What we know:
Number of helices: 5
Organism: Tatumella ptyseos ATCC 33301
EC number: 2.3.1.-
CATH class of the domain at 2-118: Alpha Beta
Structural class: alpha+beta
Largest sheet: 7 strands, mixed
Strand order of the largest sheet: 1-2-3-4-5-7-6
Radius of gyration: 15 Å
Number of strands: 7
Helix content: 25-40%
Low-confidence stretches: none
Domain N-acetyltransferase: 19-170
Mean pLDDT: 96
Keywords: Acyltransferase, Transferase
Protein name: Acetyltransferase
Order of helices and strands: EHHHEEEHEHEE
Amino acid sequence: MKIITTDTPDTCRDGLIALLTDSVNSGASVGFIRPLEAKEAENYWESIESSLKEGSRRLLVALHQEQVAGAIQIAFCGKKNGLHRADIEKLMVHTAYRRQGIARQLLNSVETLARNSGRTLLVLDTRTGDAASLLYQQSGYQQAGTIPQFVMNHEEEMESTTYYYKLLTE
Length: 170
């Protein structure tokens, strides 16, 4: 497994489109409702390209034999009073590669990138009860709270999200 950091989704666009489509269509809550079509996934990757190029966001991609197995993003806060923090976004592992420790590797890699960028506070949210919650807790993230009716699922039901944070200074 190799993890690369890229400033453009073009590096592995087709694999990223497949990853996002697979993740959403298998039930991940990452800002889309299933069924997700490839064109909508492609539009998403195009929409973040400028923030990747300007450096306010970084994209880490896990490659298995040059195939996209997973990805994670970090969005750096640009506010003067928030230059110490960043948001972790869209941790995804393709269903063909799950249960192999890839999510943990991606999370560890993004934490290293955050430290190297001078960030000391990471914040993320996940749909309440998602499997990723256990990973975050095992990785030292503290639950900050739950917001009810935060996201709508594919059946148009409202679901809660849980916020987590991690101080990298500990």
